[in-house]
Amino acid sequence: MIDVTLESVSKRFPRAGDTAAVDDVDLRIGAGEFFTLLGPSGCGKTTTLRMVAGFYFPSSGRIRFGAEDVTNRPPNKRDTGMVFQNYALFPHLSVAQNVAYGLKIRKVGRAESTRRIEEALGQVHLAGYGDRRIDQLSGGQQQRVALARALVIRPRTLLLDEPLSNLDAKLREETRVEIRRIQKDSGTTALYVTHDQAEAMAMSDRIAVMESGRVRQVGTPQEIYHRPATAFVARFIGRSNVLDLPVVAADAERVTVALPGGWEVPVAAPADHGLAAGATALVSVRPEHIALTSATAEGALTGRVTELEFTGMATNLLVDVAGEPVQVAAIDVPAGLGVGDQVGLRLPPERMWVVGA
Ligand code: ADP
Ligand code: MG
């Protein structure tokens, strides 16, 4: 097991103007860790992964596997296993022949290859499938063959780029559990790329949230969910309301803000919040943490329901509070509540958090 370090890594493509696809990224992925790059399309996830794989070389910065500097080393000298969205399997070859691919290149002998192919197929729960043709397998099985092909070379790092995107929703959830199990069993350091925040949360030890080529936050799923660093991260991970609220007082750990209607509440803030009385704070509060109450309740915000949608697990409401739309997800709503009705919203200060712009 090795750790992977990116130090001030940037990538500029020729003819792509001044904007960097990846801009000054610092990351340290621990040995055996399941680490995910998460962000919207075009934010630089694949480019970062391809630099770790060696398919692209950084314009500046260093990449290390353990103490070894691999920045300019070609892909076949890095001991990485890659898994892609489209599987990239050879359809005319059998399962075993596909898995054998990396062993052939490495000139591993026949007996050893047979043993390792069976072992890799066992790891992905496809023991005995070696003679099947690729087109006789389901999408989920094909993706597990791709995983076996990556694992059979016993890579030092496993690199996965949106490997579940071609699977339907149910299979995606099953396969993500499988990938996580296989990675933990093999102990391989994994770098995983996805734009799907639920997938990232469910699978990862830690996540780096990327936007416009930059890493905006690194943390465990819990840290990123409960303590988003910026308004972008708050909105991208799950759903969040980010309210502009006037600051009436501030100290090192807390900022007291005034809610519409005049109620003042203390809200936790990161140490470097830099806010003082008179400034405006961005405060994140999740829809599921807002409670519905009567429009006249003390300390509650009052607003008018503009949208209401029953999803089974919860009812999602959009409530207009003094011109600001506030999202609310409620398990229970008063019988007969509908669009146009006045409601009260209770925002729990302990669930609110000051974010950066
Ligand atoms: P993601 O995987 O997060 O969707 P990418 O890493 O593929 O994003 O792309 C990041 C940015 O770099 C995008 O603006 C994309 O258009 C650009 N880009 C990616 N690959 C190339 C390339 N080979 N040549 C020029 N621009 C590229
Ligand atoms: Mg991509």
Summarize this entry quickly.
The protein is α+β, with helices and mostly antiparallel strands and 357 residues long. It folds into two domains: 4-229, Rossmann fold (3-Layer(aba) Sandwich), CATH 3.40.50; 239-355, OB fold (Dihydrolipoamide Acetyltransferase, E2P). It has eight helices and 20 strands.
Fold topology:
Layout: E1 4-11, E2 22-29, E3 34-38, H1 45-53, E4 60-65, E5 68-69, E6 80-83, H2 95-105, H3 110-123, H4 139-151, E7 157-161, H5 169-186, E8 189-194, H6 197-203, E9 206-211, E10 214-219, H7 221-226, H8 231-236, E11 241-250, E12 254-258, E13 264-268, E14 280-285, E15 291-293, E16 301-310, E17 315-321, E18 324-330, E19 342-346, E20 353-355
Parallel strand pairs: 3-8, 3-9, 6-7, 7-8
Antiparallel strand pairs: 1-2, 1-4, 4-5, 9-10, 11-12, 11-14, 12-13, 14-20, 15-19, 16-17, 16-19, 17-18
Helix pairs in contact: 2-3, 2-4, 3-4, 4-5
The protein binds adenosine-5'-diphosphate and magnesium ion (MG).
